[in-house]
């Protein structure tokens, strides 16, 4: 009998900043050329790494932003390359920083929540926008 595979552990943030828009905020989405997709900044955890620390590290690596993590958001579970994957998310306010394109992430866009929801490639990422708004008491 085979045991189920341990899930790949990953973490990320729904990164937001205050903006002079109707919603009062914008959400950062990253474009990954390898997958040609738009997603929230996230990535695999290093061995023994705490999920929140990994989420903050991934935001810095993918967006160049320092952030202040806030409320935990729903965890995503899905299969990636035939393996189960678990991604823990937090709301995080962008504090400072500058985006530098890389081979992993070539574009960063700040969008109002409704546009961010539409731009996200994966359906499973869209409820995180609503969860962020609820966590910030804007929903």
From TrEMBL:
<dbReference type="GO" id="GO:0004081">
    <property type="term" value="F:bis(5'-nucleosyl)-tetraphosphatase (asymmetrical) activity"/>
</dbReference>
<dbReference type="InterPro" id="IPR015797">
    <property type="entry name" value="NUDIX_hydrolase-like_dom_sf"/>
</dbReference>
<protein>
    <submittedName>
        <fullName>Diadenosine hexaphosphate hydrolase</fullName>
        <ecNumber>3.6.1.61</ecNumber>
    </submittedName>
</protein>
<dbReference type="InterPro" id="IPR000086">
    <property type="entry name" value="NUDIX_hydrolase_dom"/>
</dbReference>
<dbReference type="Pfam" id="PF00293">
    <property type="entry name" value="NUDIX"/>
</dbReference>
<dbReference type="InterPro" id="IPR051325">
    <property type="entry name" value="Nudix_hydrolase_domain"/>
</dbReference>
<dbReference type="InterPro" id="IPR020084">
    <property type="entry name" value="NUDIX_hydrolase_CS"/>
</dbReference>
<feature type="domain" description="Nudix hydrolase">
    <location>
        <begin position="6"/>
        <end position="134"/>
    </location>
</feature>
<dbReference type="GO" id="GO:0006754">
    <property type="term" value="P:ATP biosynthetic process"/>
</dbReference>
<dbReference type="GO" id="GO:0006167">
    <property type="term" value="P:AMP biosynthetic process"/>
</dbReference>
<keyword id="KW-0378">Hydrolase</keyword>
């Amino acid at each position: 009998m085979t045991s189920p595979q341990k899930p790949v552990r990953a973490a990320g943030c729904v990164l937001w900043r205050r903006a002079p828009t109707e919603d009062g905020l914008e959400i950062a989405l990253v474009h990954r050329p390898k997958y040609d997709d738009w997603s929230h900044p996230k990535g695999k955890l290093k061995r023994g790494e705490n999920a929140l620390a990994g989420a903050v590290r991934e935001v810095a690596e993918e967006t160049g932003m320092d952030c202040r993590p806030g409320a935990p958001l729903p965890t995503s579970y899905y299969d990636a390359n035939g393996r189960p994957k678990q991604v823990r998310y937090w709301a995080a306010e962008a504090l400072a920083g500058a985006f530098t394109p890389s081979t992993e992430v070539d574009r960063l866009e700040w969008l109002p929540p409704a546009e961010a929801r539409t731009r996200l490639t994966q359906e499973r990422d869209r409820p995180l926008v609503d969860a962020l708004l609820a966590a910030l008491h804007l929903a």
